[in-house]
Amino acid sequence: MRRFAAAIVFAAVTAFTPTAPVLADTALLSLHEQRREGRKICLVGHFHAGTASGQRSKKLALRAAARDWQGFTAWEYGNRWGQWRNASNKSASCQRIGATWSCDVEGRPCRRAGRVRSARR
Asked: What is the phi-psi region of residue 7: left when phi exceeds 0, alpha when psi lies from -120 to 50, beta otherwise?
């Protein structure tokens, strides 16, 4: 349901704007407070989820769920925000169902802050 609502918001914003590809890294981000956390900039209080099922092992299920998280997050905010390794407050829960594994992950989107460069003279 959250994905459907986000898709509707994204479609509405992009339908009326000629710069749609840029919006993924600007307009939707402006809906959320951001703050610096160490070497990252993170969305405050906003989590995304990913899920995977039918995997042969727990490791594969976790990897697939993280890819699911990355795909949606990158689609909504841009590739800089859609890196699971940069997410904050990550959590995962997995369960074995018969011979396969399912996992759900959740985390706050973050991006690397980058360096502040001083002006050279």
From this structure: alpha
- Residue 38: partners with Cβ closer than 8 Å, 6 or more residues away: none
Return d(Cα 97, Cα 100) in angstroms, integer.
5
Q: Locate tokens 């390794």: which residue? A: 85
DSSP-assigned states of every residue in the chain: -HHHHHHHHHHHHHHT-TTHHHHTTTTTGGGS-EEEETTEEEESS--EEEEEEEESSHHHHHHHHHHHHHHHHHHHH-TTT--GGG-EEEEEEEEEETTEEEEEEEEE-EEE--PPPPPP-
* Confidence tier at 87 by pLDDT (50, 70, 90): very high
Which pTM does this prediction carry?
A: 0.72
pLDDT in tens, 46-83: 999 999 999 999 999 999 999 999 999 999 999 999 99
